[in-house]
Amino acid sequence: MATLREIRSRISGVKNTQKITKAMKMVSAAKLRRATDAIIAARPYAKKMKELLSHLSGQVDVTKYPQFEVREVKTVAIVVVTADRGLCGAFNSNIVKATVNHINANYAEMNAAGKVKLICVGKKSYDFFSKRNYEVVSKHVGIFNQLNFNIAKTIVAEVVDGFIKGEFDKVEIISNEFKNAVQQKLTIGQFLPVMPEETTDKKHAATDYIYEPTSDEIVSALVPKHLNFQMWRVLLDSNAAEQGARMTAMENASTNARDLIKILQLNYNKARQAAITKELLEIVGGAEALRKAG
């Protein structure tokens, strides 16, 4: 059995850890509120922009825009979005596992030939893939502390430039989508070539809008904005999901620390009672020995 000093030391250590986890939970809760407001505000704009692009793509010849070019996939780029820090449960490991499984299931031969290019957003994805048999062509770490729209534009400019130059024929994004504070949805989506979703609303699909300026001019201006904002939405989603995951993980850690303190306190009381009982027995035994000797 551990000594009283060892148990006291462990109780003190667990209490100190609990203070840290409680503080981290409060910080994550504050960040989550701001991150949630940002992604909720961004989603309607991203959705409407995608709907507009879907409608326009049926009226213009999209083949003249390089972002729409569909070609044989010989090289693929995957943007892997994780967090820069840990202590957020399975948030990062789920993304890493999904990426590895996705590559093994769909691009195993291409990966063996070095035809799968990874663009790591977040330190955790870069740390994992850079130390293994994967080709990491770019990294963006430390961006979530001061997340801004220019970061999304930089990433998009990089992947669009590589796509247009033919360095890769397809671009996918693997990230976490924010649902609520305790739940994230892992998503794997195609980013390039642009594949606008066909509207399921027959009324809007049949409507022939008059655009000013022309549909071609709008598509030409809209595609870069669409790509930039879709990437921005992915980053906002991932940031909100990370804060939610960290808040939940720290709450669970605080609860586990409280339970562990109770168990350690019980063990401490048992050890203390055993020590007192032992001392009493020694005193009684010594007194009895003296009585017999006298």
Kindly state the percentage of residues in helix: 55-70%
- Tell me the β content: 5-15%
Q: Which sequence of strands runs across the widest sheet? A: 3-2-1-4-5
The backbone outline, from C-alpha atoms, is elongated
Q: Could you name the CATH topology? A: Pyruvate Kinase, Chain: A, domain 1
Describe this entry's structure for a reader.
With 294 residues, the chain is of the alpha/beta class. It has one domain (38-244): Pyruvate Kinase, Chain: A, domain 1 (3-Layer(aba) Sandwich). It has 7 helices and 5 strands, in the order αβααβαβαββαα. Strands 3-2-1-4-5 form a 5-stranded mixed β-sheet, with helices on both faces. The protein is elongated and about 115 Å long. The chain starts with a helix and ends with a helix. The mean pLDDT is 91.
Give a short summary of the structure.
The protein has 294 residues and is α/β, with parallel strands linked by helices. It has helices at 4-57, 91-106, 108-112, 123-129, 149-165, 202-206, 215-293, and strands at 76-81, 116-121, 135-140, 170-180, 183-192. The chain has a 5-stranded mixed beta sheet with strand order 3-2-1-4-5, sandwiched between helices.
